[in-house]
Amino acid sequence: MRRTTARPGSLPAGAVPASVDGAVEGPFAESPAQPEQAVPDPVGPAPAGRALRTEFPFELPRGYVDDSGTVHRHGVMRLATARDELIPLRDIRVQENPAYLSVVLLGRVITRLGTLPLVHDGVVENMFASDLAFLQDFYRQVNAEGHTRAGVTCPHCEQPFEVELGGSRLGES
User: Which of 20, 14, 17, 22 is CA-nearest to residue 6?
Assistant: First the structure.
């Protein structure tokens, strides 16, 4: 079977012409070896001096006590990514006990805690319950653009007010 290139105007509307070897021609063709160009941000550049903040310092109410008895209270948490929230769902401990999701998730987003060389879910699971609750709330605040409140309007009087969204389970929106 022989392939030929169609003459201009002989294709139905919306059809894409193909060359003899099947490559797309015309306005839909890709240019070979063209460097990728940056697409301008539709919202515009960030205002000067206002870079996206991705790390947030915190101080635990009680502190994590390591094996040598040292108390670690000051730490840093980074913003969570979609991957941070998805990866723990594959963890067998989370599948067996969904409450373990917050422990694994916090182990991924806490980047520093005192002088510990590494923070992981094993560190988080050995924290005091009050520190875990603090970190869960802090995670919600950090990842909800600094607060866990939402503006709503009363359906009866139509007055605007804010409601607190805190209290939902970590890792769920």
Answer: 17
Alpha helices in the chain (DSSP H): 82-86, 92-96, 101-109, 121-125, 129-143
- CA-nearest of 28, 150, 55 to 112 is 55
Query: Each residue's pLDDT tens digit in the chain (173 positions)?
Result: 444 444 444 444 444 444 444 444 444 444 444 444 443 433 344 455 668 889 999 999 999 999 999 999 999 999 999 999 999 999 999 999 999 999 999 999 999 999 999 999 999 999 999 999 999 999 999 998 655 566 788 888 988 877 765 544 454 44
Distance in angstroms (rounded) separating the CA atoms of residues 73 and 63: 4
- Tell how strand 110-113 and strand 149-153 pair up: unpaired
Q: For the whole model, what pTM was predicted?
A: 0.57
84 SS3 class: helix
Supply the DSSP symbol for 77.
Answer: E
